[in-house]
Design brief:
Largest sheet: none
Oligomer: single chain
Low-confidence stretches: none
Bound molecules: zinc ion
Strand content: under 5%
Mean pLDDT: 78
Structural class: mainly alpha
Helix content: 55-70%
Distance between the termini: 30 Å
């Protein structure tokens, strides 16, 4: 049960990260536009958005790929990036969390930090784990990479510390970006 919940959470955070990545990819090469990469929009029009229109993938599906107000097309590339990252993160979570202790730790984090704090800890744990794995792959150790056991529990603990110390301002800032 906890494995399924963790996979769903990973997919959820994958959607959020994919949405943020989309904005970064579309804005940062065009710094001359002087638009912030943190502004949550990836449309060609400037129509005002309802809060639910910022929900990755689901809003695109609900709107059938068009702006609710002016019916301008919304590029499918954004949805593909968001869905791809969500699926990739869900697969990683499903494959990396069958071990009973990595589950007990998440339950402990949820009891300590509450569900939002535990999810934030999980997010930071997965990101830090990925950052740890990338240099191993770049260093040409792909052949051994399959045999390397990443200490996910260690990264989850670090994520838990980050969440405990700065979780509230991080969540508050992110929710304000999302318009809540
Ligand atoms: Zn529009």
């Amino acid at each position: 049960m906890l494995r399924i919940l963790a996979t769903l959470c990973a997919a959820l955070f994958g959607l959020v990260f994919g949405s943020f990545l989309n904005v970064c990819l579309s804005r940062w090469p065009h710094a001359a536009r002087a638009s912030s990469p943190l502004t949550p929009t990836a449309r060609t029009c400037d129509c005002p958005l309802q809060w639910w229109e910022n929900i990755p993938v689901f809003s695109w599906l609900a709107l059938r790929g068009r702006c609710r107000t002016c019916r301008a097309l919304i590029g499918w590339r954004y949805t593909v990036v968001e869905a791809s990252i969500a699926i990739l993160w869900a697969i990683c979570a499903w494959r990396s969390l069958p071990v009973s202790p990595d589950a007990k730790l998440m339950a402990m984090l949820a009891a300590w930090l509450g569900l939002p704090g535990a999810l934030l800890a999980f997010f930071f744990g997965v990101v830090l784990g990925a950052l740890f794995a990338i240099p191993i792959l770049i260093a040409g150790k792909q052949k051994q990479a399959g045999a390397v056991k990443l200490p996910l529990g260690t990264f989850l603990c670090i994520g838990g510390i980050i969440s405990a110390l700065w979780g509230h301002p991080i969540l508050a800032t992110h929710l304000s970006w999302a318009g809540f």
